[in-house]
Amino acid sequence: MLKIGLTGGAATGKSTVSEILRGLGAYIIDVDLIGREVVEKGSPCLKEIAAQFGEDMLQPDGSLDRKKMGDLVFADREKLERLNAIVHPAMTARVEEKIKKLEGDQSTRTVVVDAAILIEMGLRRLVDCLWLVWADRKTQVERLMTRDGMSQEKAENIINSQMPMEEKERYADVVIENTGTLQDLETKIRKLWEKR
Fold this sequence. Notes:
There is one protein chain. The chain has helices at 14-23, 31-37, 44-53, 66-74, 77-103, 137-148, 152-160, 165-171, 182-195, and strands at residues 2-8, 27-30, 110-114, 129-134, 174-177. By secondary structure, the protein is an alpha/beta fold. The protein has one domain (2-195): 3-Layer(aba) Sandwich (Rossmann fold), CATH 3.40.50.300. The mean pLDDT is 95.
């Protein structure tokens, strides 16, 4: 079973690449989705977040106020590191569990571990190769502002909170430049899929 790590910065097109790979037959482990699962209402991670950051990080129904939490941590690296220390171990354990289950399933030939912070979480050790979806900073900012209707400052904060793309490139086995059309991207992914 081939295990591909898929990563990229904010608004580089990583999720689009993930969907293309799913369409080609890859099994996708979506680490963002796992991140949501580990902070579900009543979870140990959510209790720890409330203890460290305050009950006001919770919605009236007891679930995480994702927007408030995001605004807080994307503007303060130390707070982001504190949050990551709470959720990353639980997320990593779930990814490992999923990979282990899939290894026992002969029908799964290619697994993609899709995570924006794959390198930062130490998930690189779980995959055979790393694919990086790349876009220049100007493109990232423009896409975030257009896609999410956010200010330039907020878009910059999100990008600044992530590992620089140049640093991610040092870990990558494959760099997928994504500043063209969706058709260009699909063509690149199909070629990579055939060569895997």
